[in-house]
Amino acid sequence: MSGVPTSVHLGPLVFHLYGLGLGVAAYVTFLYCERRLRRHGVDVARFGRYAAALIVAGLVGARAANIATNWSYYAGHPGRWIAVWQGGLASFGGIALALPVGVVLQRRWWPATGLATFCDAVVPALVAGWALGRVLGPQFMVNGGGHATTSWFGLHYHGQVGKRVPVPLIQGAEDAALWLALLHLEARRTLRAAGQLSAVAMFVWGLVRAYDEHWLLGEESHSGSVGVQLAGLALALGGVLVWWRVRRHDGLRTASD
User: Fold this and answer.
1) DSSP per residue, 235-251
2) Judging by beta carbons within 10 Å of its beta carbon (0-12, 13-18, 19+), is residue 141 exposed, middle or buried?
3) pTM (predicted TM-score)
4) Which of 37, 76, 117, 214 has a 20 to 30 Å separation from 13 between CA atoms?
């Protein structure tokens, strides 16, 4: 039985759905980020350059991390290093490189806007974009499924034998639920201090990503399973630290007032 399609052929042209889907998700996320930044009173004149820098850093970091954690597959085959249409982008590698680039550029181009406020504006949009990206990206790549399954919801993926747990669709639903939860917290003004919304997103997303990697993907993901789980837990811990620092700073400010 054929698997989930990975490309579309239009005459001599071949469009790889994996890359096309990620491109669509990135553009939608860009527009959504701009909208949220405007609502927070942030000038978006330089946001196009900012987004381009983050996308490049994210792609380079994600690909480098995948190559590093699967060196036995890539060693001696440099042509595979750039074959991203076959899959092979490690999420946390992209985050690890894009995060410092984003912080440096944010402080340089928007010095009057606090980093916490800026993050609270863009993080819900990033989570929404991630949800869309999981559905439109990894769902259509080679080896896109999780563990083998005989359940009714299993799907066939190219490069994998038998029905597989449709992890990209599951993760897309998880990220969409997190996005809606963040919007709810924001609308109810449950989190008053800048940075708390971002801390919640970091904590929840990190834990869920580690859980998915351990129980749904494992070593079959070819993406450094143990490293992904540890990175997810580290991100969740980072969320706790951000929450503690924000609360501490807010408490000190209140006491001084």
Assistant:
1) HHHHHHHHHHHHHHHHH
2) buried
3) 0.89
4) 76
